């Protein structure tokens, strides 16, 4: 009886001591990092109240490539000094030392390759503990262009509207809205390309069939969690009212004789000018011969038609 009482007593004391002398690495489970900026992986060492003035002996920050693997040491502290850290990794506390329980990791210039799980192991003079935390890298999308192929909008032939995003991360989506709010995304096709640094570029093609063009087409880019990051509205160049379509046979009947008459007048003017300038052409200035060939092309503005020839 007495012996079992003693056992219970010892067990209770051990439990209380364990509770009061724990060492725990507490990390924020999810940290968000922005591409090209600094990222913070927040971890602090918590100790029980019976642990007085703890000292950290070892810190090992590792990047895990899979849940089972050993990991790749990116920042280490042991025997009172820092190991040579991997480029761009440092303690978040600027003058961190073994008395500082904030062992947060700072990544200087966040890249897509930094995305993933990290393990933080801490050994103190009163115990040790290891935690895992995750960095989610994000790069914001924006729309770089919305344009047509073929280049010129021709209502009489099929064409394609193309929307391109700038690079972002993780994989987002492009959507099309026609006029005010008609979702036409289903009619489009999206292509994703990944650059060497891991960022995604999105391209969406929306085919337009002849005679079925609307006034406004909006391309919207959503990030991986479905939030809008950018949009661009493409307005169809409207055919000007009152101005006849230059392609229609009616106008060409009127335009053709006008062009002929116009050319004749310009030709005459040129001939006149050439005649008047003949005496002053081939003027030698700055060691160069400047000669006038105004009529080489009819649409060359008269004042710009001076051609420079180097003197022999
Ligand atoms: C740890 O240090 C970093 C950098 O100084 C700071 O941003 C963070 O808030 C600190 N965390 C805690 C829990 O004190
Ligand atoms: C952080 O990154 C910037 C730009 O990438 C670089 O100029 C700077 O030297 C880096 N700082 C440290 C402490 O590595
Ligand atoms: C998407 O954007 C929202 C709002 O800006 C942001 O809160 C969220 O973290 C972003 N998600 C991703 C995966 O980029």
TrEMBL record:
Annotated Ig-like domain residues: 36-133, 139-235
Where is this chain primarily localised? membrane
Q: Where is the signal peptide?
A: 1-21
Q: Which GO terms describe its cellular component?
A: external side of plasma membrane
Provide the GO biological process annotations.
Answer: cell surface receptor signaling pathway; cellular response to lipopolysaccharide; immune response; negative regulation of T cell proliferation; positive regulation of T cell proliferation; T cell costimulation
- Span-the-membrane segments of this chain are 254-275
Cellular localization per UniProt: Cell membrane
Q: Which Pfam families match?
A: C2-set_3, V-set
State the InterPro entries in the record: BTN3A2-like_Ig-C (IPR053896), Ig-like_dom (IPR007110), Ig-like_dom_sf (IPR036179), Ig-like_fold (IPR013783), Ig_sub (IPR003599), Ig_V-set (IPR013106), T-cell_Activation_Regulation (IPR051713)
Alphabetically sorted, this entry's keywords are: Cell membrane, Disulfide bond, Glycoprotein, Immunoglobulin domain, Membrane, Receptor, Signal, Transmembrane, Transmembrane helix
> What membrane topology does this protein have?
Single-pass type I membrane protein
Under the heading PANTHER family, the entry gives:
BUTYROPHILIN SUBFAMILY 2 MEMBER A2-LIKE-RELATED, T-LYMPHOCYTE ACTIVATION ANTIGEN
Q: What is this protein called?
A: CD276 antigen homolog
